[in-house]
Automatic annotation (TrEMBL):
<dbReference type="InterPro" id="IPR017259">
    <property type="entry name" value="UCP037672"/>
</dbReference>
<feature type="transmembrane region" description="Helical">
    <location>
        <begin position="6"/>
        <end position="21"/>
    </location>
</feature>
<keyword id="KW-0269">Exonuclease</keyword>
<dbReference type="Pfam" id="PF12650">
    <property type="entry name" value="DUF3784"/>
</dbReference>
<keyword id="KW-0540">Nuclease</keyword>
<feature type="transmembrane region" description="Helical">
    <location>
        <begin position="69"/>
        <end position="86"/>
    </location>
</feature>
<keyword id="KW-0472">Membrane</keyword>
<dbReference type="GO" id="GO:0004527">
    <property type="term" value="F:exonuclease activity"/>
</dbReference>
<protein>
    <submittedName>
        <fullName>Exonuclease</fullName>
    </submittedName>
</protein>
<keyword id="KW-1133">Transmembrane helix</keyword>
<feature type="transmembrane region" description="Helical">
    <location>
        <begin position="42"/>
        <end position="63"/>
    </location>
</feature>
<keyword id="KW-0378">Hydrolase</keyword>
<keyword id="KW-0812">Transmembrane</keyword>
Amino acid sequence: MNNTLLITAAVLLVLAFLIGVKKQTWILSGFNQRRVHDQDRLAKLVGSYTFIIGLAMLVGAFIDHPNTQILFPVMVIGYVILLGYVNTKMVK
């Protein structure tokens, strides 16, 4: 069991709950949340992505495979793509 992935998964799942369910978009840094016209869509989009990545890391924590560390760069690349999408398509 990989403790780093397990801790990261727990943090991501808590963040997914806070962002996606509780709509606390103030947590998001770099997303220009004050300029986004649809806060609910922003919370749903980022919360869903965070939940999916959290689940992937949770599954990866219990799989004993040396390539599970690839999830960190995938997470970062996904957030950069999501950041670009939000800042170009959802900002007033």
